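Continuing from the previous page of notes. For each protein in this section, the sequence appears first, followed by its structure tokens. Read the first protein now.
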Amino acid sequence: MIRTLAALAGLAVTIPADLVAAGVAVVRGGRPATRRSDSPRTVLISGGKMTKALQLARSFHLAGHRVVLVESAKYRFTGHRFSRAVDRFHCIPEPTESGYARALLDVVLREGVDVFVPVASPAASIHDADARALLDPHCEVIHGDGDTVRMLDDKSRFSEHAAALGLRVPDWQRITDVQQIEKFDFPPGREYILKRISYNPVGRMDLTRLTRETPAENLRFAQGLGISEDDPWILQQFVPGQEYCTHGTVRGGQLQVYGCCESSAFQINYEMVDKPEILRWVDTFVSSLDVTGQLSFDFIESAADGHIYAIECNPRTHSAITMFYDHPDLAAAYLDDGHSVIVPRPTARPTYWIYHELWRLITESDRKARLRSIFRGTDAILTGWDPLPYLLVHHLQIPSLLVRNLLMRRGWSRIDFNIGKLVENGGD
């Protein structure tokens, strides 16, 4: 409770500074360059609480399309609903609720939607795939079908598919019983980690190493995870090295939007890097699937051999899409078949979320690096032609969630301004 009250007080204190920041942005003004579409469409975007949904809304709006944004009632105070890029906003059920697909269809029919672009949370990507059965006769859905999304979202099945294509992935084994850990023949000199197949918003940060030399500790750790046939995990080789993440938008198996960044367990800075081996890996993988959708991948560049290994696929929009904030062709690359692949423009500044940067400036030792990051980059939400989302994410959306948790006496592990939520056990 004290922590929540402190967070609310901190956000209240920063209101004057944010008003000044928004005012300066408005004075500087200017919309990014864009190319207007010859065939304007109505585009439905889900996941309205997240910055990546706002970025897509802005890109489609600037290209002349009409944007409808949806989100669950829990996030009805999302600052993004007040964006100049959003023509209509609707609350719909949570993706896990039985009425979700029907509610999407109701919005599609009511608003005359031509294209649905899910900006899915990890808990929603499979439900968006299943919703296609209702939506496909009425609009295009830029998302994989149920079978494809389930395969990609399953870390062990994804690894199996990639390996069959001759693509590098770390050694792995699917675990459905803790006794498999006891029987596993850990290769000498290798470390492994356990990762839940289903999304684990808090436990995903736990990288406890399992080795040949620690059999008792391995078993003790695994026994506390609740591993079962219904809740499988993956035992995956830990590969030391530099992490990378990618966003890809694919139409008919052809990569049309691609971005690659250095990454980490909690990634909140995005800057394009050129890694040809990663691009080849992604292009080979997506070409093996006749899919239209958004596919994001996590990689490790091994410190031992310098090769790229894919850790997992997330069949949904990546926050790295914020790197395309000034790209005039993003909307066309999403909506038009046969578009050449686009990458972030060389002039694009790295993106970040200023509250995360300021917190790290206060709590981390390398303050010069943080200041360089702030002055080199740009806030992913703040822009002069559309300032309200910045103000209302920080002073309506997040405070409303904090008040809700305060009233419900629920805890949280951190505030994620990028995703627009409080990270909590059992969250989305």
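Done with the first. The second protein uses the same format. Note its length before scrolling.
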Amino acid sequence: MNTVAPVQSTFELPIEAFDGVGDRAFGIYVHVPFCATRCGYCDFNTYTAGELGTSASPQSWLEGLRRELDIAAGLIEAGTGRVPTADTVFVGGGTPSLLGGDGLADVLGAVRSSFGVTDGGEVTTESNPESTSPEFFDRLRAAGFTRVSLGMQSAAPHVLAVLDRTHTPGRAVAAAEEAREAGFEHVNLDLIYGTPGERDSDLDQSLAAVLEAGVDHVSAYALIVEDGTAMARKVRRGELPAPDDDVLASRYERIDSALNAAGLSWYEVSNWATDADAQCRHNIGYWDGGDWWGAGPGAHSHIGGTRFWNVKHPAAYADRLATGVLPVHGSELLSTEDRHLEELMLTVRLRTGVPMSVLGPAERAAAEQAVADGLMLRRGDRLILTDRGRLLADAVVRSIAAA
């Protein structure tokens, strides 16, 4: 069983967590908790200006972020004798683009000041198409960002309305083109499929827009109605139908077919890229069991088999750091069994597959059954999901893990 620590005013990593830190992939995730409006499907740790009032601001958040990164670097240096340089940086949210180009440059400057970034490191920011411009992308490139991920979701106006997205249908494509003109080789567009009221023709319209944008990476996620969201309340009241599993499977196949035909291949169940260089190295670090420090309100971290997470509210986050205390809210020491299960859950979803060598006898038997059922195929020592298996990836993982 894993061990979960309660809320704490101080935080220390167990000594064994430091083994190998800096030898594995090391990333920095920065969580920007600000949004202009709240989308009805979103359950991320985000806040609008009206919700925050005067309790927190981008400036107090940035001051806290600098302190957290400095303390984190010192903590790891004390345990290992060195500060690991970040191979990847990912700024997510929330809506990082609300900080503007100068604000995001300050964020990257804070990471460089504390941990540094390797030569050739991948530096990504998420952005809402509506809060970007050619000048914004120029500033990001000058600051050292190498990759941008744009929240498109759909090109159909009525689908965007159901999702409470505020950008106009064509803005995501225009923003992607602006990013490429600013010198970004790597641009991602996010899609959500299965929104109530979405038709096949709406998805086709979105896919045509994605391909028109000429991006080298696409992420596509089935809509999940999360408890506590405005959309969940509408579904519960019968105002919106719940997503249909058969429709979601059909839409996924439609997406995969269109992207494959355009030269984008899947490398993770929900992600497609033109080639290995276009793949998101930061996310691969998560999936391959690397280390990362998550900075910002509610951000999660993983160092050497210990997972920990910050307090959620920006005001509490800033207050903790103003006293020089890490804002860690809780932690979890992963057991050998936990780490094995996580490795299985993540690697199964990758095109590189899961090595047979990591499976126990009963798990191998379950995996062989998945092969017999046409859900996986064997390629050398690895088991890889088939096209049908990708539709049932979670069920495949459950069947192997339960063996």
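What the second structure shows: The first strand starts at residue 3 and ends at 5. The chain has a mean pLDDT of 93. We return to this in next week's lecture.
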